[in-house]
């Protein structure tokens, strides 16, 4: 399992698998969550979300970033990169490396940190996130919640409290 450290003021990275409903475009999204404490310096150990090691080998943006239907690599990056800068994109979309015969991503999802499942939504139509899991990470103060959304399936062994 790949581990990396992210140390910066005010920000924490977490991972989310995202699948757009407009076809079979699937991707990983690395979201950045603002932590409200201005003076908090975090040294957090995070797990890379896939088994793909090219991130650690300095791969190009084109091989790592999943663009939206626009096809522009910039659309998958963080910041005001969509709709001519008028729409803020809160994540970094990471391309999946494995796909099934239908073209759907089948990469295994790895939680960013150790934690406890606090919520599971098994019904895709119940939210704009589709099927998703929320995990609380109590090893940092304040606790951080990560959201893994637009999942094609949730394994039966994953339950609240584990």
What does this protein look like?
By secondary structure, this protein is mainly beta. The chain has a domain at 3-114. The protein is 2% helix and 40% strand. The protein is built from 1 helix and 10 strands. Mean pLDDT is 68; it is low at 1-41.
* SS summary, helix count: 1
| Mean pLDDT reading | 68
Low-confidence stretches: 1-41
Task: Characterize the biggest β-sheet.
Answer: 3 strands, antiparallel
Terminus-to-terminus distance: 20 Å
String of helices and strands:
EEEEHEEEEEE
Q: In percent, how helical is the residue content? A: under 10%
Strand order within the widest sheet? 2-3-7
Structural class: mainly beta
Quaternary structure type? single chain
How many β-strands, per DSSP? 10
- Backbone shape: globular
Radius of gyration: 16 Å
Range of strand content: 35-45%
Give me a quick take on this structure.
With 162 residues, this protein is mainly beta. The protein contains 1 helix and 10 strands, in the order E-E-E-E-H-E-E-E-E-E-E.
What are the salient characteristics of this protein?
disordered N terminus; single chain; 162 residues; three-stranded antiparallel beta sheet; 10 strands
Please write out the topology.
Elements lengths: L2 E7 L1 E9 L6 E9 L6 E7 L13 H4 L14 E4 L4 E3 L1 E4 L21 E6 L9 E7 L6 E8 L11
Antiparallel strand pairs: 1-4, 2-3, 3-7, 5-6, 8-9, 9-10
């Amino acid at each position: 399992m790949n581990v990396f450290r992210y140390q910066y003021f005010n920000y924490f990275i977490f991972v989310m698998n995202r699948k757009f409903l407009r076809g079979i475009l699937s991707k990983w999204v690395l979201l950045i969550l603002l932590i409200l404490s201005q003076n908090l310096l975090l040294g957090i150990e995070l797990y890379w979300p896939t088994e793909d090691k090219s991130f650690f080998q300095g791969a190009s943006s084109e091989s790592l970033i999943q663009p939206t239907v626009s096809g522009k690599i910039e659309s998958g990056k963080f910041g005001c990169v969509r709709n001519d800068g008028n729409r803020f994109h809160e994540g970094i979309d990471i391309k999946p490396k494995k796909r099934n015969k239908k073209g759907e991503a089948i990469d295994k999802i790895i939680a960013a940190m150790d934690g406890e499942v606090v919520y599971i939504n098994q019904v895709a139509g119940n939210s704009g996130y589709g099927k998703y899991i929320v995990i609380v990470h109590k090893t940092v103060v304040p606790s951080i919640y990560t959201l893994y959304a637009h999942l094609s399936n949730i394994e039966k062994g994953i339950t609240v409290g584990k």
